[in-house]
Specification:
alpha/beta, DHBP synthase, Rossmann fold, 2 domains, ten-stranded mixed β-sheet, five-stranded parallel β-sheet, 15 strands, globular, binds threonylcarbamoyladenylate, binds magnesium ion
Length: 334
């Protein structure tokens, strides 16, 4: 299939209405969209990504009033969250509307709904005027794409086209919160923090342990192995001296070593490959760079990657979550 690299919003809307699959920017990461009411269109998403067919997709809408095209009811807490955080990086799990393709929700009776904040995504969703299912636009098992180039690297030849909106503003996926249970449960930390949510609806739970989730997967995506760089990654939690020591030790064993650090510390470590991930003084810049840096490591022939812990406030919650997954929870501490 020929993949058109610079679709206009009008071209993308027409392709979606024709049942094709196109990638488009959102404020979190790029999404891979198809009409949520068509089994045939949804099947093309699963095929292009190589996604297991029991992992449900998020449905995107262009206005709050469209929510009933996707959900059969909206509990009060969910309504409060929509008013507070939409458009924005929050996906709300709700009871599913019968009109949606069964394959969107992988047979579940719930559906994840999101109203994104990116002007291109909103314009596209309004032009289509139907709910659009859109997982992240990466090949399954790769980091989510934060540029149109990342999408092209993964999906050229497999999708109809890409709308280029420049680099994603946030760089990590939306927060997913299940509002079909009381209290609501955060299934995936993301662009909206637990504290911000609790300020609006009171206490919520965090589905923390990956192991727990594997045993009773509430969010089907959680049972799949998450992205990990080709070289094993280890988080070093003991400050610069410890990081220098573990680099020296690994190099002493003949290993090619990569490190992931903030720009402030770029010159501090004599590793074989040093990649920076935003600024320590600006946690959102770390979120913005993380997936790009992880993709870049794979282009180098490394034996091990050490990462500094990054700031944990605000979106740092989501950064830690993705780093823990990328490193398989391997940590070295003093
Ligand atoms: O920021 C984002 O959310 C991006 C952009 C494109 O909107 N999308 C995204 O989609 O990250 P995806 O498919 O890569 O991740 C969706 C996650 C998966 O872990 C999936 O299992 C979970 O949400 N999910 C979707 N529907 C669900 C449901 N009904 N119940 C529980 N979990 C659900
Ligand atoms: Mg994804």
């Amino acid at each position: 299939m020929k993949t058109k690299q610079n679709l206009t919003i009008e071209e993308a809307a027409r392709l979606l209405r024709d049942g094709e699959v196109v990638a488009f920017p959102t404020e979190t990461v790029y999404g891979l969209g198809a009409i949520a009411t068509s089994d045939a269109a949804i099947a093309k998403i699963y095929a292009a990504k190589g996604r297991p067919d029991d992992n449900p997709l998020i449905v995107h809408i262009g206005a709050i009033r469209q929510v009933r095209q996707a959900a059969s009811s909206v509990p009060p807490a969910a309504k409060q969250l929509m008013d507070a955080f939409w458009p924005g990086p929050l996906t709300i799990i709700l009871p599913k509307q019968a009109g949606l393709s069964e394959t969107v929700t992988a047979g579940l009776d719930t559906v994840g709904v999101r109203l994104p904040a990116h002007p291109i995504a909103l314009a596209l969703l309004k032009a289509v005027n139907l709910p659009v299912a859109a997982p992240s636009a990466n090949v399954s098992g790769r980091p989510s794409p934060t540029t149109a180039q990342h999408v092209a690297d993964d999906l050229t030849g497999k999708i109809a086209g890409i709308v280029d909106g420049g680099p994603s503003q946030i760089g990590l996926e939306s927060t997913v919160i299940d509002c079909t249970v009381t209290p609501p449960v955060i299934l995936r930390p993301g662009g909206v923090t637990k504290a911000e949510i609790e300020a609006v609806i009171g206490r919520v739970l965090l589905a923390e342990s990956a192991k727990e989730m594997a045993e009773a997967p509430k969010s089907p995506g959680m049972k799949y192995t998450h992205y990990a760089p080709k070289a094993p990654m280890v988080i070093v939690q003991g400050g610069p001296d410890l990081l220098r020591r573990v680099i020296a030790q690994a190099q002493g064993e003949g290993k090619r070593v990569g490190v992931l650090v903030t720009e402030e510390r770029q010159g501090d470590y004599p590793a074989d490959v040093v990649l920076t991930c935003g600024r320590e003084s600006d946690v959102s810049s770390v979120a913005g760079r993380l997936y790009d840096a992880l993709r870049e490591f794979d282009a180098h022939d490394l034996d091990i990657i050490f990462a500094e812990p990054f700031p944990t406030e605000g979106i740092g919650e989501a950064i830690q979550n993705r780093l823990q997954k990328a490193s398989g929870h391997r940590t070295i501490a003093d």
